[in-house]
Amino acid sequence: MRSRRPIILVLLFVVGGLSPQAPLARAQEPQTDNTAKPKPAGRSYSPNVDDDQNGDQDVIYLLQPDAGPLTGIQTPTLGSLEVGHSYLLTGFQSSNVGRSTALNQATAAGWNSTNYLAATASLLQLWDTAQLSLNYMGGAYLSSDKDQGNGYFHQFALSQSFQWNRWRLLLFDQSFYLPETAFGFGVGIGGLSVDSALLPSQPGIKSNYLPNQSVLTLTGPRFSNTAAAQTSYAISPRSSINFAGSYSVLRFMQAGNIDNDEGNLHVGYEYEISKKNTIGALYLFTAYRYPNNPQALDAHAVQAAFGRKITGRLALQLFGGPEVATFRMHPESSVRHIGGSGGATLDYASESNNVSLTYSHGLTNGSGIQFGSSNDQIATQFDRKLLRRWRASVYFEFAQNRGLGSPGVGQGSQALNSYYAGGDLVRAVARNANLSLGYSALIQTSKQPVCAAGICGTLFTQHQVTLQISWHTRPFVLQ
């Protein structure tokens, strides 16, 4: 029987001192929902965790099915590793990034170098009907780029789940303090991202519930935080209803950028038509506000949804429907915008390959340069295991932000296109350590000149070469 001590006691216990014990067990979690039929576990070959010590054969890890609702706010996954113990993992990363120019320079100004030193920590605490997950990455950077200078960064993610028969409650919080846009920051499987924290136990929040930051030339530190809650009720073994709400803030440390707040209310219904396929419908209300500015944007969207899950192999979600928005330019005037919103996510895995693809379309906050924008965004990544200790990935992401046409506000109806593309090669140099080499290109284009740090242009390009070594401890078992 797992301990039911309050979370604060667990955290005090972690801070007070831990000792490494036996490796994580892989026992099946008990069924807590009496209305649902047990689902078979899937299989995963050598995920981003330690391989066997002898290095002579692949380790097969059992996966629990993804229990996240189709019409919820969590990102879909191929499943989660079966873990029978609470644990703590800590690690360290050191990266050197060479850049061809600063992103606020329209022409090449010579290469510069930035060194990142980061610490990572992941905590998983299990109870009979609850689970707590914490992931953190933070550190400092030293740069020869006088525009970027020296500073620090932090990324933090928390999720807490509770299960009571037909009810399930999820609480999330995700925070970032970054020296530049999150779009392309720490890209790739060896990147400086909280998403790469060790053995994440619960999926995060879908990207359309996070503040959009897909304009590359908005350099300088910024802080963002998203807090969310979701509750699900199983009406029957095959159907459920989901309610969710979230609130986000985006604040820039440098003047000239547009701070914004974002609130979401969400309700969805879904029905499992087979063991693998689910259909649903959802309603989403989003409110965008801009501190110290009269502009405001309210959007209502209704979407149909389809999902397909094969544990360890496939996770697919499709959404789409109409969106009606009211854009207030001044206290006395407003404009109605009618369009569509939707998206798709796909994750596929085989013994050697992993493919992910996401697409979204709809209204967003304006990414700090516009008072609201119509956004299209697509991202894809392909990972392949090459040899026993080698793996590689290639990735591409594109975002277009089109202003809603408010004259004299931000970039008005300007359309900004952002791209990043590249690849990584990673080698396991020890049981708990990896060495990676990566290249990426970041490009921003527009038909009208965009001004950044006093320099205006229609094309901004940056090349990056990254060398990184990462290391982590073996799990410290808490109970």
How would you portray this structure in words?
The protein has an 18-stranded antiparallel β-barrel. Strands 1-2-3 form a 3-stranded antiparallel sheet, with no helix packed on it. It has one domain (7-477): Beta Barrel (Porin). It is an all-beta fold. The protein has one helix at residues 7-16, and strands at residues 42-45, 60-64, 80-81, 87-99, 112-126, 130-143, 151-164, 167-178, 222-234, 239-252, 260-272, 277-289, 296-310, 314-330, 333-349, 353-364, 373-385, 390-403, 415-430, 433-452, 455-472, 476-477.
Q: What topology emerges from the helices and strands here?
A:
Layout (H helix, E strand, L loop, with lengths): L6 H10 L25 E4 L14 E5 L15 E2 L5 E13 L12 E15 L3 E14 L7 E14 L2 E12 L43 E13 L4 E14 L7 E13 L4 E13 L6 E15 L3 E17 L2 E17 L3 E12 L8 E13 L4 E14 L11 E16 L2 E20 L2 E18 L3 E2 L2
Antiparallel strand pairs: 1-2, 2-3, 4-5, 4-21, 4-22, 5-6, 6-7, 7-8, 8-9, 9-10, 10-11, 11-12, 12-13, 13-14, 14-15, 15-16, 16-17, 17-18, 18-19, 19-20, 20-21
